[in-house]
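#dry-run=false #mode=assembly
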Amino acid sequence: MTEIFRNMWRRKFRTLLTIFGIVIGIFAFTVMGSMALKLNKMIDGGKKYVTGQITVSPKGSSGYGTATGTLPIDTLNKISQIDGVDQVGALASLLVEEPDLDNASISMSEPPSIYGADNKSKFKNRNWETMTMKSGKMLDDKSADDEIVIGINIATDKKLSVGDTYKIRGRDFKVVGIIEKTMTGPDSYVFMSITPAREMLIESNPFMKSLYASGKLKIEDVNSMAGVTWKDGADSEKVSAAIKDQFGKDVTVMSPVKMGELIDKASATMNAIILGSALLALIVGLFSIVNTMVMSVSERTKEIGIKKAIGASPSSIAFEYTLEAGIIGLVGGAIGMGVGVLVANVINAKMADKGAEIFLIEPNFLIGVLIFSFVVGIIAGVIPAIRASKLNVVDAVREL
Amino acid sequence: MKNEQIVVKATGLQKTYKMSKHNIVTALRGVDIEVRKGDFSAIIGPSGCGKSTLMHILGLLDRPDEGAIIIDGVDMTKLKEKKAYKMRAKKIGFIFQGFNLIPTLTAFENVILAGKYGGMKTAARKKRAEELLDLLGLKERINHKPNELSGGQQQRVAIARALMNDPAIILADEPTGELDSKTSLEIMSILKKLNREENMTFLIVTHNMDVANDCKKIIRLKDGKNA
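#status=ok
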């Protein structure tokens, strides 16, 4: 073992350059992988949510958050009469802050959003019935209209604790609960009663505002989307189809299965990114190690000859060189991973203020990266090692 | 004679090398050689007579085209390279002209390495390596790397390495070739002492007549044959 390190150290500059090549590859792998993990985690959370209900939104809206249309309460009531439907939960959602298009930035996380739900409704997402609270309590049917529960990112960003007042769009709200970190959507959500959310939604839209002022729009019709649950034993897809049959002209129906599939496609893209960056790291690393090891073998022809002459088995020679390559891979991998984790943490710390951590650093992933870099080294070492082990002793000894 | 056990017996060794399509070199044309336990023999002959080839074949580094080799009672003629390394580790000790120590290893580690290849246990090989280096007067230099040792010291490390597995025979290829005459005498006296006191068997390839005359027996080669 010490011999391997001494051999590596013999050609310091070359070894360092090779290691540097691996460092870059593994750095990219760590950073890309952590980013993909974070995205996957968010997607998973979203998937859990959307597959736990049938999501109904007004035609012409982009789905979540940015509603341009509304779902009249009448429609929702009719939906609740459809065979197989259990509960319908209306939701009024909008962004906490009006998006500033002049300073648009690309964010990996969802922007802070308000979710106003009817606290008296019996509607519960089938997959996500309760939230784990970090402090305080969740809103319930006794909650007042000025009480809110916030996600951990908002709490951290605005330095809010239970009992504090949080001003949203000019209104004062009292924080009654903070949700434990979920690593997904709810971390940047504000949950409140539906009435203030509806009011703010109207405020934010000049068109709705004028309709409301003229009495043509009733407040209970301001619903940006609704969740529909199905009765036990009912088929979510059949229920979705029935809603679509009757209200397809007015609403977009997203069935759990369809949404699940859409999300899986997105996950597949994420995984392709991980795999792609891994492949890149593999190729860069592989070739630089192969090159270094081939050179080492030809430089050490004489030594290999001596070792064989004094009785080294071909496999022990091959093992030595494979291990050396593996260690180069591992050292480069460890450094690259370290730098990657450092960079990810620094960026996360900067972004945490905005509640938008980009990277999810998982110990299992890091261990995987280390094993991966070692394996890359081993693979790269195999061909040079076999060449070394097959070296003709007489030819090698003649060089003596 | 006290020791009559045959250590190496080779008969009718032939070897040709194909250097290129039209350049075929015949190195050995039927060499017979017999080495008995406790022999201290020199192989001499002009350059190109096949000394080195014979040495490589007897050391199982190369295979003859024709002929038979028996070492320590084991027929090595048909031995495959896959198994040859074990025989090399256990039965044969090599001493080369250029010392040929592994430059990244200390004197001690170089000697230990041979024990490892010979299948000795860790504790046993450490003990034996220490004893051998002590015997060869290198106790103080045990943790030095080859480039920190003089030529004579390096060759003594190489001798210790050759002795490590208590081989049936030690093959020495020009063991004094790179040493000054004083150091050459020193190395030769060590080899003679090992032969005399430990009954070690030596076969020394040389073109140095002083070295050859120091040996008990001289085997002459000429044009790939016994002369």
